[in-house]
Amino acid sequence: MLHVAVASRAFRRYSTYRAATVAGVFTNSVFGVIYSFAYLALWRANPDAGGYDAVDAVTFVWLGQALLMTVALWGGGATDDLAERIRTGDVAIDLYRPVDLVGWYLASDLGRAAYHFLIRGLAPTVVGLLLFDIALPDSPVAALGFVLSIPLAVVVSFAIRFLVASTAFWLLDASGPRILTGALAIFFSGMSLPLVLFPGWLGTLAEALPFSAMIQVPNDIWLGRHTGIDLVGALAFQAGWAVVLLLACRFVLALATRKLVVQGG
What we know:
Blueprint: H1 2-15, H2 18-45, H3 54-68, H4 78-88, H5 91-96, H6 101-131, H7 140-166, H8 168-171, H9 175-188, H10 200-208, H11 216-222, H12 229-257
């Protein structure tokens, strides 16, 4: 119940930033339109690039805009709070609490992600549906698979951002690693370009990295590129990275707090 309460309060916290939400929906919609026309021009020159048709490509754009804030692709959310509390030393208060630090921040981030998916995710998608021909899941199984893939994508993203925030234990300021990780996430998640368009070994590497679990895998599930046992494999890929990265979070946290000095104290 504690973690549900933490997630609920995180949801309510982000729902108070209404002007920022409206501005964000507008921004996502504008970028969705720009990317859609760019992709349509690309697919007009190569109609079956990456195994997608033009409708799949435009759908990929709007799903990416819907998930951009949900998975906090370039940072933000509860892990930014953690990095700041490490920098100021307030993390010592967190460590005194009789709760698991990773679980606490994960619950908070899931609450944030739920708000961003329902508002920042659905609103631009409606705009995309009104302006372009967007593919819908061709079966209830594909729709259910997409719904299941979203929290897995958020957990993978959270774990990566938690590890980045934890660098503040040694660097004091995690801004540099956060910017670098954000750039890698934009490139290797499929946000800038579907990974199926990457050539040779670069495409194989990109699809194996955890960043692909945030955008590429959920989008492909929506588009019906994973069916049957392949759909189970796609969800297992996300779940596998989520488990590995959460274990890494616990290991790094234990390593960082084995001997912690706060502001010289």
